[in-house]
Each structure stands twice: as structure tokens, then as C-alpha cells.
Amino acid sequence: QVSLVESGGGLVQAGGSLRLSCAASGRAYSTYAMAWFRHAPGKEREFVAAVSWGGGSTAYADPVKGRFTISRGNDKNTVYLQMNSLRPEDTAVYSCAVGRSRATREADYDYWGQGTQVTVSS
Predict the structure, then answer these.
(1) In the chain, what percentage of residues exceed pLDDT 90?
(2) DSSP 113
(3) Which residue, 90, 57, 96, 55, is CA-closest to 75?
(4) How far is CA 56 from the centre of its chain?
(5) How confident is the model at residue 75 (pLDDT cuts 50, 70, 90)?
(6) What is the SS3 assignment for 63?
(7) Can you tell me the mean pLDDT for 43-67?
(8) What is the rounded CA–CA span in Å between residue 42 and residue 70?
């Protein structure tokens, strides 16, 4: 079983930055990928970014490319999402997830955190 706890959300003005963290405890697989998804009111949950076990392979959704950076801590159990140049449309609950491989579909992830709210004001 894997438990995921996110932190770092909050209220920020457009153009500002936030850094989200997600700490994983327990281990279901010997190696695992981690990802961030977000869920805005009235919208489907969408993929944001993913990183492989070693941290060398990443993937980003088009709306966040060039603004967000995903990375893993040295202990491999923590994932970060550095969010720069934030826009009001980035407002959502951001959740981290764990899966066997770096993927972009929700169905590829087996464990999810509760999420942290990010609100970007205009």
C-alpha cells in the first residue's frame, strides 16, 4: 500500500510561482513513476506532468510546458512540481499519483493523494 501526501498549494497572483511537494510512504512496486494531475471545477481531471523512477524521463501537458517543472527528490519518494508564470486557468486541486511507469493517463496510476488547492487570482 502507498500513501501520498501533497503540500505547497495556496493562493497566488497571476504571474507568480508555487512549489508543490508530494511525499510517498510505503511501496507497492520496486520502482515507480510519479505524476501530477489537476481537477478544476466543472472540468475533467487532467494530466499535468510525470517523471520516471530515475528522474531522467519527464512528460508535460501542453498547457504547462515551459512553465512547470517536475522533479524527484534524492530519496525517490518525493516528487515536486515547480510552477512558474501561473495563470488563472491553472486554478485547480492538484493531486499526485504513483504508477508502474511514466504515463499520461489516469488509468495508468494506482495510488492517489488527496490533493492540494492552487488558486491563481487575476
Answers:
(1) 90
(2) -
(3) 55
(4) 16
(5) confident
(6) helix
(7) 96
(8) 26
Cα 112 to chain center, whole Å? Answer: 10
Distance CA 84, CA 120 (A): 11
List the one residue out of 16, 32, 42, 43 whose CA is nearest residue 96.
32
- The two beta strands, 58-60 and 116-121, are unpaired
- Residue where the block lists cell 508564470: 85
User: Which three-class secondary structure state does DSSP give residue 62?
Assistant: helix
Q: Does the structure show a pLDDT above 90 at 1? A: no
What cell does 16 get? Answer: 507568480
In this prediction, residue 28 has a pLDDT band, given cuts at 50, 70 and 90, of: confident
Question: What does DSSP say about strands 68-72 and 109-112: parallel, antiparallel, or unpaired?
Answer: unpaired
Taking the C-alpha atoms of residue 76 and residue 33, their distance in angstroms, rounded to an integer, is 9
Q: How many CB atoms lie within 10 A of CB 57?
A: 12
Q: How many residues does the chain have?
A: 122
